[in-house]
């Protein structure tokens, strides 16, 4: 199993942003000893709450997920691309890792574990309610008290642009009051969509680092007060200015063992989702944080003063040993037994799941997905359709509000053909993007070249050389999620098993 190309090193030991060039939305980070850990939003995909590890804040690997299934399970039997896990906070306290997140339709959840690889507790609903998002805890070592701050989603609650604070039991199981608005963005001229707060204690102050202004063009704010419940002073500490980094905000602050301060945040990049940047951070003479180059994002910067590490990045390629898939893959809903079958040989064997929605991949829970890379890339996989069921199909897709896929389909006469289909945003079913081509052996090598602007070109090879298929397809995001690459196997409604499809040698190479 290999990885995507690592961060491009420049002369004199510098790094280049973004350090995670794919959709690791709403990142938060914590240091434990010499190790750094990062989690991100996973919305309705399962497993959720990805866990990344680094020793230098530049090279990251994916070590697992903290949330095996979304709850309640019945709610996530079908895709819920804009629901689920929003903007988690990752902390380490009392020799345990803690993750808090908001589900905008249910409330604030908490899980914890003795180690980052688990075992993680079942989700505990700390505060029920609609529109409760972006929670972050704080355990105050000076007083022994615990606190929680969260934001609001107007789409569910009718409220936004404010932060609410609570006292919390130190064991993270209960809030001790009804909550109080501690920052009201409506009272700050020019501020809107204040959200994503991260709560810290530093230099005798309570600090809230929180973005405002929206993901496309917003900024990062800092708030401080000697008392948790306010009133808070505020400043803008990171904004786009004359750079090409739109909306640089929402992330987390971390301090290295040597005392250097760094801030990891996202940038919204359309179909590529929210990519992650690393910014230097310092404190000015008045005790306020200064992020980036005097408040503007850096593109290239000297690396953190940390021991050199071997190049690393989250895995993308997969040979599916023993029918198992790597940690980089997520289903578009809670998985069910039998979707993927383990076996003694290599290759991913997916069951052709019967569905009434075979013509709209966006409705299907049994798609196995990973993130679309932020650099121009070629994606390849080989698929064999081991199904005689008329209408059974399997393939490689680019998924968002619009989708396109290429793969194999079984005809009524038993023959297999390469087909290429797409659906525009708002369309309720797919259309043909190219003429069917015979696949005599029921096997094909599929390729999608995703170029600049997420413009995707499809091609295939049934053994007589590569052939292009259809027009250019421009990938689109889902509402909060960057475009995804997906593998699937389907069959029309009917009775009895519908066979399987086997995928081998999944590869992503940057162009």
From TrEMBL:
Protein name: Glycoside hydrolase 43 family protein
A Gene Ontology molecular function term of the record: hydrolase activity
Annotated Beta-xylosidase C-terminal Concanavalin A-like domain residues: 318-508
Any Pfam family: Glyco_hydro_43
Keyword Plastid: no
Recorded superkingdom: Bacteria
Family to which the UniProt record says this protein belongs: Belongs to the glycosyl hydrolase 43 family.
Keyword Hydrolase annotated: yes
CDD domains documented for this protein: GH43_FsAxh1-like (cd09001)
Keywords: Glycosidase, Hydrolase
């Amino acid at each position: 199993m290999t990885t995507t190309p690592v961060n491009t090193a420049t002369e004199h030991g510098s790094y280049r942003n973004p350090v995670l060039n794919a959709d690791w939305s709403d990142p938060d980070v914590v240091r434990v000893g010499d190790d750094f850990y990062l989690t991100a939003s996973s919305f309705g995909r399962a497993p959720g709450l990805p866990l990344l590890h680094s020793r230098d804040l530049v090279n990251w690997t994916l070590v697992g997920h903290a949330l095996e299934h979304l709850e309640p399970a019945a709610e996530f039997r079908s895709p819920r691309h804009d629901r689920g896990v929003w903007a988690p906070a990752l902390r380490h306290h009392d020799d345990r890792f803690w993750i808090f997140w908001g589900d905008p339709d249910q409330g604030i959840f908490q899980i914890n574990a003795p180690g980052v690889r688990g075992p993680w507790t079942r989700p505990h609903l700390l505060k029920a309610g609609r529109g409760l998002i972006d929670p972050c805890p704080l355990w105050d070592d000076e007083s022994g008290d615990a606190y929680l701050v969260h934001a609001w989603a107007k789409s569910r609650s009718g409220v936004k642009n404010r932060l609410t604070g609570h006292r919390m039991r130190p064991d993270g199981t209960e809030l001790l009051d009804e909550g109080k608005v501690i920052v009201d963005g409506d009272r700050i001229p020019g501020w809107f969509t204040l959200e994503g707060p991260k709560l810290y204690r530093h230099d005798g102050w309570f600090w809230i680092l929180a973005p405002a202004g929206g993901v496309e063009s917003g900024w990062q704010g800092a708030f401080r007060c000697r008392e948790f419940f306010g009133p808070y002073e505020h400043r803008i500490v990171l904004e786009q200015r004359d750079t090409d980094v739109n909306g640089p905000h929402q992330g987390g602050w971390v301090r290295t063992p040597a005392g250097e301060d760094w801030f990891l945040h996202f940038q919204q990049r359309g179909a590529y989702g929210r990519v992650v940047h690393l910014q230097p951070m310092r404190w000015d003479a008045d005790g306020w944080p200064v992020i980036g180059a005097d408040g503007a994002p850096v593109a290239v910067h000297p690396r953190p003063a940390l021991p050199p590490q071997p190049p690393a990045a989250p895995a993308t390629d997969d040979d599916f040993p023993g029918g198992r898939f790597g940690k980089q893959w997520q289903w578009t809903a809670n998985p069910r037994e039998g979707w993927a079958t383990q076996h003694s040989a290599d290759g991913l064997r997916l069951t052709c799941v019967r569905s009434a929605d075979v013509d709209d991949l966006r409705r299907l829970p049994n798609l196995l997905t990973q993130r679309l890379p932020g650099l121009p890339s070629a994606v390849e996989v080989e698929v064999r359709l081991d199904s005689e069921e008329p209408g059974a199909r399997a393939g490689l897709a680019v998924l968002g509000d619009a989708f396109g896929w290429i793969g194999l389909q079984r005809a009524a006469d038993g023959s297999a053909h390469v087909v290429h289909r797409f659906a525009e945003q708002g369309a309720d079913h797919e259309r043909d993007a190219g003429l069917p081509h015979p696949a005599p052996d029921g096997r094909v090598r599929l390729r999608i070249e995703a170029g600049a602007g997420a413009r995707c070109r499809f091609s295939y090879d049934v053994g007589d050389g590569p052939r292009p298929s259809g027009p250019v397809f421009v990938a689109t995001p889902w509402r909060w999620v960057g475009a995804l690459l997906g593998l699937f196997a389907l069959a029309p409604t009917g009775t009895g098993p519908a066979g399987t499809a086997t995928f081998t040698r999944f590869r992503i190479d940057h162009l």
